[in-house]
Amino acid sequence: MPSTLFQKVWDRHVLSVTHESTLLYIDRHLIHEVTSPQAFDGLRLAGRKVRRPDLTFATIDHNVPTEDQLHVKDPLSKRQIETLRANCEEFGVELFDVKSGRQGIVHMIGPELGLTLPGTTIVCGDSHTSTHGAFGALAFGIGTSEVEHVLATQTLWQGKRPASLGIEVTGELGFGMEPKDVILAAIRALGVAGGTGTVFEYYGPTIRGLSMEGRMTICNMSIEGGARAGLIAPDDVTFEYLAAGDRPFAPMGRALDAAIADWKTLKTDDDAKFDQHVAIDASKIAPQVTWGTNPAMTVDADGHVPTLDELPSAQRAEAERAYQYMGLTPGVPIERIPVDVVFIGSCTNGRIEDLRRVAEVMKGRKNAQGVRTLIVPGSEQVRAQAEAEGLDRIFTAFGAEWREPGCSMCLAMNPDKLQPGQRAASTSNRNFEGRQGPGGRTHLLSPTMAAAAAVTGRLTDVRRLPKV
Amino acid sequence: MKPFTVHRGKVAVLDWTDVNTDLIIPARYLKRIERVGYGPLFFADRRYVQGGAPPIDHPEKHGAPDPDFPLNRPENQGASVLVVGKNFGCGSSREHAVWAVAQAGFAVLVAPGKDEGFADIFEGNALNNGVLAIEIPTPDWERIVEVAGAGGAQAVVDLHKQTVVVQNGPATVEVPFEIPDARRERLLKGLDAVAETLLLDADIARHEQAAPAWLKPATA
Ligand code: SF4
Prior knowledge:
The structure holds two protein chains of two kinds.
Chain A: H1 5-12, E1 14-18, E2 21-25, E3 28-31, H2 37-46, E4 56-59, H3 75-91, E5 94-96, H4 106-112, E6 121-124, E7 138-141, H5 144-153, E8 155-158, E9 163-170, H6 179-190, E10 198-203, H7 205-208, H8 212-220, E11 229-231, H9 236-243, H10 253-263, E12 276-281, E13 288-290, E14 298-300, H11 316-326, E15 341-344, H12 346-349, H13 352-362, E16 372-375, H14 380-388, H15 391-398, E17 401-402, E18 423-426, E19 441-444, H16 447-456
Parallel strand pairs in A: 3-4, 3-6, 4-5, 6-7, 9-10, 9-12, 10-11, 15-16, 15-18, 16-17, 18-19
Antiparallel strand pairs in A: 1-2, 2-8, 13-14
Chain B: E1 6-14, H1 21-24, E2 81-84, H2 96-103, E3 108-112, H3 120-128, E4 132-136, H4 138-148, E5 154-158, E6 163-168, E7 171-176, H5 181-188, H6 193-198, H7 201-209
Parallel strand pairs in B: 1-2, 2-3, 3-4
Antiparallel strand pairs in B: 1-5, 5-6, 6-7
The structure holds iron/sulfur cluster.
Iron/sulfur cluster binds at residues 61-62, 105, 107, 126, 128, 346-347, 407, 410-411, 428-429 of chain A.
């Protein structure tokens, strides 16, 4: 029977099916400090061990300060971090600790270290685990009890196999356009619940033309479209990424050859059908910016904050709340909105290619007066690479802060927070109320767009930024 | 988990409807890293005198009990069977709510109405933590409340026989209850989800043995 990529990966991991439940084998379990403490406690109370410590990997990302990783001032953050260290020690789990050279946001380091492989199942107590789907892995977030279940059994109970939703992207990305714009446009088209109960597969020539970094940005935000996971079929770009560079956990030599032979079968068969299908023409989209308090409240950068009568009636009540929370007048041009903070980083856009594009915009320019610009590499590897390329010097000459790796202002669990009422241009993935600090206002956009906002001090269509 | 067969204990009644998980345990306590210590946090904003809710990291440092909170009555102290109102545990999915129930000493919850007594997620979490959540017809539940409401009643909850017997002085009520077979089995055997999965250990091991070599993380 013809099948989709998602079906193929799912079917490979089914151990048992009873009634409405499916037991899946989990190939990689990633862990961070926030959602794991009670899971380890549960193991301890039951006198259990981690079944496969060799398939379990931990890092510290959410609570870590990015000014100086070694000085955690908040006692509750400190305790969460130290708890993870103790748990990893006790249960024999490898921890990529700060200053190990391998620390970073959990969804950055999985791919970087070669842990994330095509055709595997990957879980983490974190919803943006969908990122790893860029490699053709089935990757999704789980709750704390499930973390404990995976630790103890290396398996996970799921319901029936979810439906598939194909997102076909064609057309060339124009000047100033980025993968972030593609995914924001897709969420804008689908709505935040459009993918509920489905798994996305992104395909088409535009997706094929993207680097692994770009593909990860897209899969990362599948969850913002309501899907638990989003996949892209592996191809030569994937194989080259895994074969190149320092990927200590990826297969090498003959094992890699065998793996690639297998991975080549991981694609949706020509005659397989998705349960649902959406098409996006990338050549027709403008840079995207969110104006409201969920990621589907998105407009073109050269557009305006939608007025009530431009919105479907079902969205008006939420829009009215959003105007108020965001401190915006309906109809105001996007480019007229001033920002206080520019945040460049997160598991959506904290990768080396993102930083290279930011540097291109910042080179020879100056940070707008009164705007605070934070550039937070997603991992120690990215930080080192950026410094080797001299990007950090471009950033500091521009007037931005070059910080240490972590989740930072994506969710403000560490000291990087917006003050109430402050407005941020942010390359992260969620613009919910209070997400970047209580009362903080978030506009999601691409790294180039964020850099443009840092130059002008307001939301700016990067295509119109005057040349230096 | 310990197998649940027969439970004997004192009965307390808290017959409020739609008790949500925020009431059972306020959101701020989710910053805790522990899976224990939730007993004093059970109804933390209701059971102590004003300002008496404990700090996040010191559950034991709580204020004096508020005499108006039903579970604080002297006759309810030491109760392990809690009779609750309809839709108990609604709201968020936080498992902390069940941890608080269990660690406050309750092994059995009795609610009225089939499929209406407990919120879905809460019910699943209860099962995962070995707490028996029983739904009985409303008229039976009312008889139990009548007998136990004054305080001091004793209950015998028998999962084999699927009966609850509540006795208070000369008054006795015996009520049968239903529970899905799979849940009953899991509780009787003391299996948590993990223990149940481990029954499939042979399947898991077989899958692991068949794994291709490239799947094993290469070591640095
Ligand atoms: S960067 Fe943000 S979205 Fe990504 S894992 Fe960290 S907190 Fe979650």
